[in-house]
Amino acid sequence: MPYHSSLVLGVLCLFATLPRCLAAPAGAEIRTHRIARTTTPPRVDGALDDDGWRGALVLEDFGLLGGGKTDVDVPGTRAMLAYDADYLYVAFRCDEPQSDRLVVRTTEHDGQTWTDDCVELFFNPSGDRRRYVQIVINAAGVTADASFDGSPETMDLGYESGTEAATRVGNGQWTLEVRIPFSGLPLAGPSTAWTFHLARTRSTAGQHLTMLRSPASSFHDIAAFDVLEGILLPERPIGVLCASLGTMFRGRNTARATLRNWGKRVETVDVSVGVADAGSPSRRSVRVEPGQTTTVTVPWDLGAEASGRRVRLVVRLGQRVLHERSVIIGPLQDVFGRLRRNAYCIRWDAFVKIAVPVRIAEGSRREVQLHWEAGGADGRPVGSGQTVVRDATAVIRLYWPRWQPGRYTLHLELVQDGRALASAERTVLLVESPTGDDG
Can you give the CATH number for the domain in which 420 is found? Predict the structure, then answer.
């Protein structure tokens, strides 16, 4: 994500040499802006010429990062914001005397758009100055997005906002229109005041940085974000306080969504989770009382064949999507992790405890058993056993005197209903404790 998040990308030392990026603009203060709801959604085509922008909030007071108002020779930036029941709309007109030389190297979503000529959007919909999202769009309309929980170090690049963007490049300027679904933003209530920040990078001019004039000392200085009032969403009385797909291990995962009813009547909410092209999603409906918070759990299965597909969690109120979270399933990790220790001390009055990491989804753990067999250096079996997998580790216990100092190979097998799910081998070294303990 953007190098303005210096801690995230490990370049804090670079920014320590740039005082203008670290000092708040003199005399700047946090301001409150009011956005209007539009009855004519703007077309997302980059043209900025339709009625959807009439009555939009207009912001033109951009200044150098850390330096207050822009100098007269700095090209101007104009932003507009509007919304309707389902989307937040943002538009930019970026004056650029070198518009024929715009830097737009990035072509893939979630690529390094911040190194191009681009704009950056920061939204903290709960107004808590903690949970916020960042969306970066370059002059070719390519997006990158991430979510944060209080600081740049908490970046979640797996976050997807669902942003749509379109740009146009003309003589002396480039323009941008953006549509961001509310279902992709961490909303806290139907009438909460947000905090937000807008910024621009002119890579054509050598990473020239401007932003809304505010006390912010960096693009991510959430404590100094301006306030955005006027977003009223009576159609969304249910807030999704948090949502998770679970551990994303093989087996039966447990998705969770914590819902808050901000309205005055009971609402029935539908939560579904499914993997693309893998049959019908798992669903659960729940009634949420006014003023109450409810956590919904939805089990869903993840097998090896799902790698490379998208899993999607959707929260609906009637036909309206309140929240959506989706992730591309990467290569699944091996079921058996590495042992935290490979050497153990044995003693006559206690057992050796070997913790085996088992990457199996939380909903499947009590349904599987770990079968194991240990062989000595000569390959002969020395002992065997089985244990239930109760959490993220399974524990093997070796009792004296059968176990003598030496090297052993553990043959591990995870079994469910008599069927082997995975197998692995691990080597351990047992040594007699010179002090009598098992450390």
Answer: 2.60.40.10
Higher pLDDT, 289 or 16: 289
Q: How many CB atoms lie within 10 A of CB 303?
A: 11
Per-residue pLDDT of 261-294, as tens digits, reads 999 999 999 999 999 988 899 999 999 999 999 9
Q: Is residue 141 part of a domain?
A: yes
Shared domain for 184 and 282, answered yes or no, is no
pLDDT in tens, 94-125: 999 999 999 999 999 999 999 999 999 999 99
Cα 81 to Cα 192: distance, rounded to the nearest angstrom: 17
Amino acid at 106: T
- Residue-level pLDDT at 290: 96
Whose CA is closest to 284, among 309, 259, 250? Answer: 259
Same domain for 16 and 129, yes or no, is: yes
Q: Which among 203, 229, 255 is the end of a domain?
A: 229
DSSP string, 293-343: EEEEEEEEEE-GGGTTSEEEEEEEETTEEEEEEEEE--PPPPSB---S-SE
Domain boundary among 293, 328, 363: 328
- What is the sign, positive or negative, of the torsion defined by CA atoms of 93, 95, 100, 105? negative
What are the angstrom distances between the C-alpha of 369 and each of 177, 390, 395?
54, 9, 11
The string of pLDDT tens digits covering residues 383-426 is 999 998 988 999 999 886 678 889 999 999 999 888 998 999 99
Do residues 319 and 393 share a domain?
Answer: no
Q: What are residue 343's DSSP bridge partners?
A: 429
- Give residue 405's domain range: 343-432
Are the CB atoms for 42 and 53 separated by under 8 Å? Answer: yes
Asked whether residue 437 is domain-assigned, the answer is: no
Residue 386 is which amino acid?
Q
CB 316 within 8 A of CB 234: no
Do 172 and 302 fall into the same domain?
no
Global model pTM greater than 0.85: no
**Structure confidence at residue 144 (pLDDT):** 96
